[in-house]
Amino acid sequence: MTGLTLYTNPMSRGRIARWMLEEVGVPYDVEMLGYGGTMKDDAYLAINPMGKVPAIVHDGRVVTECAAICAYLAEAFADAGLSPDEAERADYHRWMFFAAGPLEAAVTNRALGVAPSDEQQRMVGYGDYDRVVSVLETAVSAHAYIAGDRFTAADVYVGSQVMWGTQFGTLPKRDAFLAYAARLADRPAHVRASALDDAAMAEMQAAG
């Protein structure tokens, strides 16, 4: 046991947490959970009552929600250099939580066929999908990375949203998104994490 455990499924947002753990570079254990099965068992609900992955447990402390996991790991393992410096801090927090809030909501609603009316746009945090996409495009175009010229934990979270979005069609394949995704895709930690999750997915599928 390492004192750090990832609860995940390779066909979930747990891939974000896995990437972040590989960036941090510390040993961790993995518990693979199945949808509708172990993910809803009492043992896991005691860790995350939402019955969703990912979650991490670090020395008895539970962290859920991908953006929170990324931020927590960056702070808990500061030697990895993934937390923002003073100049990066504002953009780091701004865009990580923009991706966790307005972007996530806008993309999910669009996938569900939900389009708020002009009046309803004042009630929802993202306004409308097109505005969110344009704001995100400007953000990823401003610097090489989301908080500046250096990779941080915010790029794990925002970058995952952009890579998945352009791959699965929930974001348009604009040049700025594709260029940003390309800067991240070949990072050794991302390559390792993807290989681990792809292997776990194949194993789970083979097991039926």
From TrEMBL:
InterPro entries: Glutathione-S-Trfase_C-like (IPR010987), Glutathione-S-Trfase_C_sf (IPR036282), Glutathione_S-Trfase (IPR040079), Glutathione_S-Trfase_N (IPR004045), Thioredoxin-like_sf (IPR036249)
Protein name (record): Glutathione S-transferase
Boundaries of every GST N-terminal domain copy: 1-81
UniProt keyword Transferase present: yes
PANTHER family in the cross-refs: GLUTATHIONE S-TRANSFERASE FAMILY PROTEIN, GLUTATHIONE S-TRANSFERASE-RELATED
Pfam families for this protein: GST_N_2
Occurrences of domain GST C-terminal (ranges): 85-208
Species name: Sphingomonas hengshuiensis
Origin organism lineage: Bacteria, Pseudomonadati, Pseudomonadota, Alphaproteobacteria, Sphingomonadales
Domain of life from the UniProt record: Bacteria
Coiled coil: none
UniProt KW Transferase keyword: yes
Cross-referenced Gene3D superfamilies: 1.20.1050.10, Glutaredoxin (3.40.30.10)
PROSITE patterns: GST_CTER, GST_NTER
GO molecular function: transferase activity
Keyword entries, A-Z: Transferase
